[in-house]
Amino acid sequence: MPQQEEITPAEHRTTTVEQGRFCLARCTCGWKGPARRARSRARTDAETHAAEGAG
């Protein structure tokens, strides 16, 4: 049986989500980045958030 990976409160896992013409970054900590027209900008927002560990 595969073990389920636990996410610690200090760990930030980000993803990008499409909403209509916009894309935004989200994190497992509840953070949401601003809506962007460029996916690359949303990915940069996510990378910056994860690197800073901002809550």
In short:
This protein is an alpha+beta fold and about 55 residues long.
Describe the structure in your own words.
It is a single chain. This protein has 55 residues and is α+β, with helices and mostly antiparallel strands. Helix content is 25%, strand content 22%. The protein has one helix and two strands; from the N terminus they run E-E-H. The chain has a two-stranded antiparallel ribbon with strand order 1-2. A hairpin with a 2-residue loop joins strand 1 and strand 2. It is globular. It starts with 13 loop residues before the first strand and ends with a helix. The mean pLDDT is 86.
Helix content: 25-40%
Count of beta strands: 2
The residue ranges in which pLDDT falls below 50 over 5 or more consecutive positions are none
What structural class do the secondary elements suggest?
Answer: alpha+beta
Mean pLDDT: 86
**What is the multimeric organization of the chains shown?**
single chain
| Secondary-structure element series | EEH
Strand order of the largest sheet: 1-2
Fraction of residues in β-strands: 15-25%
* Radius of gyration computed on alpha carbons: 12 Å
Please give the largest β-sheet: 2 strands, antiparallel
Structural shape: globular
Q: End-to-end distance, in Å?
A: 33 Å
Question: Helix count, per DSSP?
Answer: 1
List keywords for this structure.
1 helix, alpha+beta, 22% strand, 55 residues, two-stranded antiparallel sheet
